[in-house]
Amino acid sequence: MTQWRSRWSMRGWLLWLGLRRRLREALLRGAARCLGRWGVRMGLPVVPALLARLPVAWRGPAYPRSLQNLALFGLEPDECRERACRHSAIRLQCALVEHLYPRHRPVRLRAWIRSIAWVDPHGLWARSAPLLVLAHTGEYWMAVACLVERHAEATRFVIPIWNFNDELTRSSLKSLEAFGHQVDILDSRAPGTALALARAIRRGDRVIIFADLPVSMGGLRSGEPTGGHLFGRAAQFVKGPMFLAAKLGCDVLLAGHRVQLGGPGQLHLIEWVASAPAAQMQVSWARAIERFLLESPQDWFYLSRMEAFFQRQQGPAQRLASLPAELLRRGSR
Questions:
Q1: Is 104 exposed, middle or buried (0-12, 13-18, 19+ CB in 10 A)?
Q2: Coil, strand or helix: which one is 181?
Q3: Which residues contact residue 151 at a Cβ distance below 8 angstroms, ignoring those fewer than 6 apart?
Q4: pTM here?
Q5: Average pLDDT for residues 77-102, to the nearest whole number?
């Protein structure tokens, strides 16, 4: 009887989570249609001030952890509260913009993308890099759109994404083919993705990939761990991007988006990481991303989930060593 109750209570909990997610999507879709781009442009800039006047419980589910993590940046309490409110407003804008994205209207789509300011003070774009690495900052999918649209000649892009099963994300990325490009979307967690990316780079395709991924979050594993440091603490990241670049001997261009509440925001070309051993490239990448995040931590998608980078995850050798000896003997037969 106890087992039966436990099973049904778990099913009920999963059903509630699914229902809550669908309800949230329906509310966001309805709000986006009611507000339109004009409403978002006029309303979002005042959201942080409005949130600051509301009870803490009404400032968004990520607010408490964002506020706690912002204290790690050495900010004053008042500034932490202001930036945590801005983070909640940024996440709201990202969710609304996703439903307003003119994915089926190429002319409007190009105008939307070109309204995003291009910040490249060191002329990094003039140097050709087969591997374009992004940070999960601002409207990060708009950063992908900017990089694709910027290519004047027809190009084949290969883009691995962690939320491969999300139809809205896939359709948004495929809509970029209206600019004359080919866009191949891969599941970043699929076993053959690393090999497919290596083949794409050797063919001369452009690969766009996100590198600031925690190894594991919410019970889902994104890849194998590699060590490093983030904000003065030992951290782990997904091994893939810099390891791939080092193995193939290719340079990497780092970029990230920053939100302007109510506006299109900016795409920043952050750093050029020259080909080097994997450990050296990882250090260069981590330092560049850390500098970028420190300037505007409220733009980081993982601000409220920073602890995922500081949790130690086992690599393949450690997982193998932790298996019982009897199981290893059976597997070797």
A1: exposed
A2: coil
A3: 181, 206
A4: 0.83
A5: 90
